[in-house]
Each structure stands twice: as C-alpha cells, then as structure tokens.
Amino acid sequence: MSNKINAGIAMIKVFESWGVDHIYGIPGGSFNSTMDALYHERESVKYIQVRHEEVGALAAAADAKLTGKVGVVFGSAGPGASHLINGLYDAQMDHVPVVALLGQVASTAMNYNSFQELNENPMFADVSVYNRTVMTPESLPHVVDEAIKAAYEHNGVAVVTIPVDFGFKEIDDTFVSTAHNHRTGVILPQEDQLNEALPLIKEAKQPILYIGQGTRGGWEAIKAFSEHFSMPVAAAVLAKGIVPDSYENFLGFAARVATKPANEALAVADLIVFVGSDFPFARYFFNPKAKFIQIDIDATKFGRRHKTDVSILGDGATALRKLVELGTQRPKDEWLLANQENKRNWVNWLASFSDSKDEPLRPEPVYAQINRIAEKDAIFVTDVGNTTIHSIRLLDLNGQQKHTTSGWFATMGNGVPGGIAAQLSYPDRQVFTLSGDGAFAMVMQDIITQVKYNLPIINVVFSNESFGFIEAEQEDTEQKKFGVFLEGADFGKVGEALGAVGFTITRYDQLQPAFEAAKNSKRPVVIDIKIKNQRPLPVEELVLDPDKFSEQEINAFKEKYDVHDMPALSELLKK
C-alpha cells in the first residue's frame, strides 16, 4: 500500500518544490482546508496575513516583478476571491507570473446556491492564462503544478479554484512535482535578421535606442551598443533602473510619465531601435517617419506600435551584443553631443530645486534626501500618479538598485503592497515605497502588515490634497476641475496609530532629521510630507521650441513651470 498524505498538504509541497516561500491572503470558511495545510507546512511556506486581498494580489505581482519568481495569493469564496481582481490584472498587464488560489464551497454544496458560492471561473477567465476548478482531491497537487507551469510559460496569471472539502481528504502520496524539469532559455536572434538592420543603422543621422523591461540584466550590452553606434538611449518606465540614471547617453523616459530629453529626441529621431518593449504611446511620441528596428522574443508584438522596417526575433541583450560585433562603429556626432547636453541641462534644472525651502515643499528636496540615504542596493516601489512622474525623474538609480510600479494597469495603491513584497523577498535590502496621499489612503491599513512582520520599510507619502495626475488631465481638457481635491489627513499620525514610526513634515529643516531616523529605524516608517499642489513640468506638451511657438508663448510657459537654462533640443542641434 502506498503512503497517504493530506491533499492540501500535498498541494503546499508543490509550491515548496517550485521555490515559493510565502503566500498572501485572508482566511475564510471556504479556505480552511488550505489554511490547515499552511499551518502544517509553516516552516517551509510562510503565510502572510494581509488586511485586504487586493493588497495580497498586488504584493504577489510585485514579488514576480522584482524576483522573476512566481508570486502566490489566495482569496476565499465570493468576496475574498473578487477582491483579488485588481492585483491580478496588474500582473497580467505587466506580464509577470502569479498563481491565485480561490476558495470554493464544498463540492457537495456546489450548485445549491450556497452561502458565498460564486461561479468563479467566468469572472477570472479574462485575467488568466490558466483557469481551472479542481474536480477531485487526488488532482489538487497536479492542477496546482500545471498552474505554476502555465504562469511561467505565459508570464501571466493562473487561477485554481478549490472546493474546501478536497483539501481535507487523504490521497495517495504518489504525486511528483515537475519543478525539477522546469527550464528557461534565451531565444537566439538569427544573423540574417541582424544583418538586415545594419544598413539602417549605418544610414541613420539621428538614431536612438529605446529599451523596455525585456532588456533587464542587459546593461553592459546596452552600454556597448549605445557607444559603438553613438546612440542616445531612452526607456519605458518599467525599465527604470536597468541603465544607471547618471549615464551620459541615457535620456530618460517617454510620454507623460517622462523626461524632456527623451521626448524631444524620439520626436525627431530618424531611426528607432525598439528593444524588449510594447510601449503603448509610441504613435503619439515617436516620429512616425522614423525607420524602425524592433527586437522582441514575442513575434506578435512586431509592428504593433510603429511601422516596423526590420523585425528581429530573439533576446534583446543578445541581439544588441551581436549587432555590435557585426556593425561598423558610428563616430560621435552632433546628434549625440546635442542629446548629451540636453540631458545635462535637464539634470541641472531638476537639481536647481533640490534645496528649495518653499512651503508647502517641492518634491525635489524630498528626493534629494531619499537619494542621500538610499543604500547601493535599495529597492523602490513607486505608486501611481504624479509621484510616478517625480520618481522616474528624481530617483537617481545606480544600476544595482531595483524599481517597480504598476505599469500598464497603472492602479493606484500598489506602493505599500509592493514594499511588503520587496522586503519579504529581499529581507537584507533597504526598501522604500513612494505614494501620493490619494494612493496611500487606499491601502494604508496594510502598514499593519508591515508592523506585524517587522518589515522596516520606509513609506514616503507626498500629500498635496489632490489626485494631481487627473487634475492635470482636467486642466488639459479645459473642463471644470471636479472630484479631484482630497480631504487632508495626518498620515504620520496614521502610521503611528498602526504601529509604525511616523513623521509629518511641513518644513525643509524637518526633512533631514526624519530621513536620518528612517534610515536607522528597525521598524516600518511613514513619512508624510506636505508638498505644493503643483503640476510637474508637462514634457508631453513642451512650449519651448522657437520654431513652433512665439516668444510670448515660450516665456509664459517658462514662467508657469519655473523653466530656466534649458533650451529645446532643436536649438542645441543648431549650435
């Protein structure tokens, strides 16, 4: 006779075999068999009790973004499961592997209109790459194993619904996880496709390299390509941190959550080398007449964002290295030098506000303190809104530090959960979360989770009493500003009430002591900083080019946004 094992425990052992060491969720009656299994396996897989299932799902997505490993979350039948949706869409749209376990009433109660019974498969059909209800206790470990494989294979969300009675059953202990068979590999680009790209690079007068998160880990290849072909580099927001922000050829980011040098260069580039990205705003910010070389591991993306002249199927960093080997070096030219100068002017303009003592405070002095205390391998999780704009412009990442946010789904409230994930996955590294007051208020209850698990996260809240990002959109559409202004609160005291160390900052001279204390704290910290409700410079609508705007229009724009010593790229190219 074969040995017996509890089906729920067999399932948790599958997660163990795949290297999962923590799972987020909130228990419910429909999930009690799995809770019992988690109790028995608590030394191997840690249960993380969040205070809202959405936080657990967002944290699982952040785990996957930061580590590349599958994130895992659960919700009980009905409301516990439906609360997961937001975080699961974040994972789906940023293409990371997450497994969601859903509770279900007992198999004997299904289809009897039972309490909290929900037909969960249809609800999760759109968000998932794998969506199954377990049909027998014996199949429970098998279905979870299949779900993990599907999440990895498709970089997406796998959903498993578990009738609660199945997890309590004894089954034969014969199932063997397939984790030891899991393999990953690099798609090698074909040389004939690479050779097609070389004439376009040789002929280009104003080329630029645009990178996405598909180039993660490829900094050396990006640098070699940029310098061999004398190309400036721009990036997608999710690629923040791949290239050190101080690199002279790095212009920053495109679109609205963006930088001036990148937007200006992409608008007039005659060649764009587009690598490992699916940037959705290309049609608005890339020169439509530019030649386009696209490199990706997913052939369905070719031509999606811009008419593509050469498509190269393969790993981005590998392709960049091969192109350097095959292609003739381009000398430094006026195009590259003008873009380097544009970047220097931009950095100097931002830095000119770093010691501003305005009240309410500007964001620049706050980020100066964050950069000052940040350790060389710190992790930053930025929430959604104007804080995202400030973070991609003002965080000075060195290439060893990590950064993530909610990219495509752009859901407010990802900051605090992402910080929990970062600190659990990297317990020896310093972690910051950066949130606006609107986003922080959505998830601030889970500061309790940081406190419960003694996670010394530095949570920075930028309070301007506005949904500032949306306020700017209402301004642009010339409508009455409505629904965007927020009631203020003292989030430092909120943090204290939840068990963290709390600071509320209203003056410049309070910044350094608070951040020094945060740096040395062994407990979670909430620093609420009252900042001016001032729109960040709208680099998507620059009024600086004398070829396009009158002197009066340019001066009005400069006065409104405190612009100085920062000519347009067109002026630098004429020098």
Task: Describe the model.
The structure is a single chain. With 575 residues, this protein is an alpha/beta fold. It folds into 3 domains: 178 residues, 3-Layer(aba) Sandwich (Rossmann fold), CATH 3.40.50.970; 153 residues, TPP-binding domain (Rossmann fold, 3-Layer(aba) Sandwich), CATH 3.40.50.1220; 178 residues, 3-Layer(aba) Sandwich (Rossmann fold), CATH 3.40.50.970. The strands form 5 sheets. It has a 6-stranded parallel beta sheet, sandwiched between helices. Helix 1 packs across helix 2, helix 3 runs parallel beside helix 5 and helix 9 packs parallel to helix 12. The mean pLDDT is 97. Belongs to the TPP enzyme family. Keywords: Pyruvate, Thiamine pyrophosphate. It holds the Pfam family TPP_enzyme_C. InterPro entries: DHS-like_NAD/FAD-binding_dom, POXB-like, Pyruvate_oxidase, THDP-binding, Thiamin_PyroP_enz_cen_dom, Thiamin_PyroP_enz_TPP-bd_dom, TPP-bd_CS, TPP_enzyme_TPP-bd.
